[in-house]
């Protein structure tokens, strides 16, 4: 099954509409795969592509399909067998498996490279002969030693040099393409295998790693293989080249000078080894800190909304800065050791040259031009392998670390495949668990037990890890099984155990049939709303629209201009919590599975919507299915065929609704207390539930964005990387300092060139008496040694200066990038995929940290060397300028054409990389859902598709590099040819020493010209990383954190809020969400905010905190316009308990008080108030107990209580509860309400709620509909209007509960103290004060009404108690009778259930 994914950013990077649409090679086969041999050797098949790129702006769909042997699926299939064999070995190695798979293909490149390497030595041999030819030609006839020779021999040498060089060039680029392809293969299989492995990780394995760590492996570590294989043949053949060079040196100048030079090289080898080892160690440490930085960054970006609401930017910036500082420290160490290695290796050729020629002169007393310039050419050849050696060593060190990290990750334990009993095939579809014990981390459980066994009697035992114990559970056939229980009792854990997410320690657990799963926190993919529901299933119009109806999504689709084709952003950012949950339910229903597992799906929706979904969907559409429903709504218990009551990780009670009542145990008492014993069986069996809707008819918004896309295509520059980008990079490390570094580069090249020229001048003067100098030979020697040593010193200083500057630049760029993103407005994060942003902090930042500096330095070295070479050749043979002019023009034209291709391919490669990481991040967030639906393979195929798109760009770019290289070599080889020709023409007048110098430099120009050009392109493509980062640095910025206008220290003193004609839209060009809201909220007033999904409830909060700036109108707090204050001053003086409880990895104390503004005693006091002190005390570390990423080791209810603790610590004057209790059980809800009433009595409170009981005692209620104020008055006054929206919402909760809610409003109006009475909560083993409505007489609604002086009467009411919105518990320690219950058709929430300590996504 192919998972339907919206190919944002890539599939249709559309060109401007006024331009003609050009297809290019869309969906065509790769021309490389089907071309002839000549075209393959010359890369002629790419000519038309280069011309196309020059005439058009290249888009992804213009590029041909990958060759079949390059596709991700093919590569993964090839390595699969080799890796399976490796895993059977005692010490598996992913690198060995990769070598076995792709090694034979890569070895083909060795044949080509060997021919190229051999061709390098033909030139020096012919050079020596050319010098002897010129010398012989200048000897007068009859001179002893003169031999007869063909006067045209020089031309023959020219042709021979040109021919051998061209053969070498053809072979080199075939070798390069194979190497590039192999490196890309290795990167691709790492991305594929790491992604595949991520889908299989067990819970214990996930605790050992993090998304940031995995992303780092997929991006930076995998990239190391590409970098290494681009140079690996240089390393492999460096030793043979060195050996051959030494042999030929011996032949040219004798064994003594050669031995001296060789001895110096040997002495340097141990230093190379020490430096290389140190580089490996530093790199190994550095990637650990990089992982930590990316992990923290990823977590911050995922929770950026919460960080902004709390004004915690500074605290989290410090976290990242702390990690980055350690990473930068390692970067400096790495840079200096690398510089040391480069200095050491770069100094060797110069030092060897000085030593060799000094020894040669001392031994022979002569400087034969033919010998010394042949030797000089061999030394230049020697310079190449020695120059690349440190780079290759450094990259090999990084690759070794990367390969080990990949191996370690792939060897992590996987989630266990289910085992089946012998009679499995005889069983019906359903779930079967027998005598089972589950834990979240079997490894940690075993470690704990081992430690306990090792401890002596009396020693404190390890704290027990949460587990499910003695679970016996079976449900089959058409049935509804409800799982209820309090916070931390294990409800969600039992769901996860069924799905196989928990480790089975003992017993049996299996299921049969296809499963559909609705998680507690909805998982939404970045695709259209339709694709989210279909989830890879084929479209069935009738079925699809029926699903929309039963899941109450029809009206929501009317609100979207594009209907169900509207694109849903990452993590469902443009959907409300209720909409996300209904989409998640619709996906499950459309899936048409056998077994449905629904983990508390109704808590996030309004009461009347919950009733609709329960009756139309859960007991309607799914009546023929096996349904397991974890619920917080006890009013639905009578509809269940089986009820499972969880307590402390065990099943405390089970049975039907009637059996639980008859058992007379704790849960049955709760059912009686809440009036559930009065349930009408006939009503439970009724399928026809009439559900009405009362809301203003909304006019369909104007279609602004025709294609329905929320996520915009990734930003992409066109044309060359601008000078401003280079200047940004140069200035980041210090512009003046870079200028000094650049001057040192030029001085370094100049000194090396001058050293060679001096040798030529010395040779002419000593051997032929030419040059006109009066210096002695010894003086020549000493000057030569001095220049050589000066060159070495300059090179050393240049390297240390430059690489130190580069680290400063990367440090500054990262600081600016992170700072810019913290300051970006919320809409930026809503419309930008997380993977795209993370790509800046991984691949792009890695490029700035490690790659750009090397590329830029090599470009400057090669470019300056080419300029120096051309100057030398032009001085010696001026006639060469004649053919050189057109050659240079052709060279510039080629480079010009090529740059259009290379830079656009590089940009597309960068853009096409982001979806890989976005998809991966999305996968990790929905891992449990993906496993439950068994869509791993479709997600793997989606990963392959995105990787293939990326590889289309990368491999095409590599082919274009070879296309350019072979054409540049042709030009360079022509320079050699013409140099020989003009030396032959001018053989009677040219200086003998200059012949050797000219030819030796001409022989090197081919390689240097090619490398300079490719390095220029490579530098530009790598600068694309800086360009992409700078784009974000200069991106949108929200208002200033601090302005010149500062609020008073005690502001807001009162907490009065005024909305003055507030109009708000999420982004420019969109329809307004709030449409002229005007209202006044008095100081210390408690205001409830209600309205249907999409009415604008949460948007008011965004306006108050200025997460979105007002389009029109203003918001005043205590009479002060909040827009004039800085965001930090505003947000730190407000408090919010958000809809989604967000925790950060670290300690509990850091989550409560990240700035450490409060003492431990204050924090413990808060924990006691929110009744978590005993839970925290029982955890290892107490206040500093571990909070895992996303708070996964805490239940949702506990997370919400921690968020309440944050607000309590701040002691604000204005508190906002944004559906803060939507996802928690009624115990937690009532606890939060009770704490708020007591602790925030002098605070202005705005409460957005689904549960009407939480706001019915408010001073006033604001009813919103379609972004406008529908009603705003006291609850009692609003309920006097029977046709009002609040009255309708209250009536929708059911006849009995609506009477109770109306009574609450009446008591509030009459000034009677309202207090709900729950029993206490078992998980935290603490008593919670009872909640009841106190009055002097009983209520006709069935609620027990007590006077403060008479709390024990009126227990014999004949009417059914009705409040479903109260806390409940197993405990019997309360002093009063519980007084509330639920009606059978009510959509309100449960008095007795909660969340479990789970790791659901």
Automatic annotation (TrEMBL):
Residues 111-398, 740-1021 form the ABC transmembrane type-1 domain. One of its GO terms (cellular component) is membrane. Residues 1304-1401 are annotated as: Disordered. The chain crosses the membrane at residues 97-122, 154-173, 228-249, 255-276, 339-363, 375-397, 729-747, 781-801, 859-876, 882-898, 968-985. GO terms for molecular function: ABC-type transporter activity; ATP binding; ATP hydrolysis activity. Residues 1389-1401 have a biased composition (Polar residues). It comes from the Eukaryota. Residues 1337-1388 have a biased composition (Low complexity). Pfam families: ABC_membrane (PF00664), ABC_tran (PF00005). It is found in: Membrane. Keywords: ATP-binding, Membrane, Nucleotide-binding, Repeat, Transmembrane, Transmembrane helix, Transport. Residues 448-673, 1057-1291 form the ABC transporter domain. It is a multi-pass membrane protein. GO terms for biological process: sorocarp development. Belongs to the ABC transporter superfamily. ABCC family. Conjugate transporter (TC 3.A.1.208) subfamily. PANTHER family: ABC TRANSPORTER C FAMILY MEMBER 10-RELATED, ATP-BINDING CASSETTE SUB-FAMILY C. This is ABC transporter C family protein. It comes from Tieghemostelium lacteum (Slime mold).
